[in-house]
Amino acid sequence: MKRFWCLFFMLWPLLAIYVCWIAPDRGWWFPTDAMSPLGQRIDDLFYMILIVTTVTFIFTQIGLGYVLWTGAQRTDPGNTTRAWFSHGSHNLEVIWSIVPAAILLYIALYQFDVWREFRMKPYFPQAQLNAALNKVGVDVAGKAGATDALAEVTARQFEWRIRYAGFDQDGKLLPLMSTPQPTDLYAVNDLHLPSGAPVMIHLRSQDVQHSFFLPELRVKQDAVPGLVIPVWFEASESATYNLLCAELCGWGHYKMKARFVAEPSEDFLEWLRELHAQQNFDGVAPAAEEAGAE
Hints:
The chain is of the alpha+beta class. It is built from seven helices and ten strands.
């Protein structure tokens, strides 16, 4: 019976390894492959850490199995093997202190580039961000208060309020200013941005701490009251993605689900024009439209 329990406790680690082995093919892994270049690099970091922890797990479980089995053998009738007592090994203590420290240091150094590129503004891909702005006709040069963002996302209990820049009298898209303007356009839970290029948003919180989370793009940034946080990301494909709050922010936290629509620059501009028309519609149809309806 004692060997049964040894095998029983060793079964679960083997089962865990097997389930993790077949998980990717059965869709039990990430919700999708990362849909952004930065997300792919974050996935690479995850898999590297997963490999390290898996190897460590396998060897520790082998050691545990050996101890359990030999301990069971020593209780067999007629077994006269005496217990071995040790004060410890100084060399072994040094090894299992240095090796984990070296692994952790390697992981820390390995992820510096990804962390720096995503979190530190001086390392943002500024040239590509400017190119994305130019593609939709936005010129921020020499304009006081103009930002490099295409949208300002404000989290509140329990929704996402989004501010876009509007159009000038010539129909040209204006830059997003740091403060609200009369020409600004607004949406709720509906973030639209160009795909295929890095774009920036400014993230705010109106009340408590929230967390801006695009799971398919592997983008996650806390929205902190009193701060304006620049966040850049790139959607590799034009599609509709989930936009969630990943911070427990109150009783209605579960309702803070929105969508992020990544679309070609032309479609983005067309959507803004439709939003502009809806926002500025006074409820009175022009005479030509009324005549056509009749």
